[in-house]
Amino acid sequence: MADLHLEREFKTTAERLFEVITTQSNVLQWWGHDGMTLPEYQLDFSRTGPWFSRLVSEDGAVFKMSGQVTKVDPPRSVSFTWGWHDDADARGAESHVTFTIDALDGGRARLTIDHRDLPSDEIAARHEGGWTHGPLARLERYLATLDV
Description:
Radius of gyration: 15 Å
Number of helices: 3
CATH topology: Alpha-D-Glucose-1,6-Bisphosphate, Chain A, domain 4
Distance between the termini: 38 Å
Structural class: alpha+beta
Helix content: 25-40%
CATH architecture: 2-Layer Sandwich
CATH superfamily: START domain
Number of domains: 1
């Protein structure tokens, strides 16, 4: 098993960052990668229960993932399970994600993503690229459009 740890700082309050990473209307603004559509989803991380998303790339490739939101501790953290689905919609190995928010000086907040129990170092490296070049980049751009 492999684990991934990412940290990013944003010019926003911890409370605003928590709202943006948990409420579905906000999550829809940064989930996935540029150029992808999100035709099906349940992305409310503000409460425990199931979540899923089906992303479609510009070339028609489908990426489905799902899990359970297991813990919500506003404005500090949210935890959920994560599993990719194959072409037959069978859910694969389950990993665990925790978003942790720390308030920083100067109206800033740090988001830490711990993605644990990934099947291998290779898959962890792919997830690192996925988080970094997709959702985290989009989250940064989205937060820049909001009032702090």
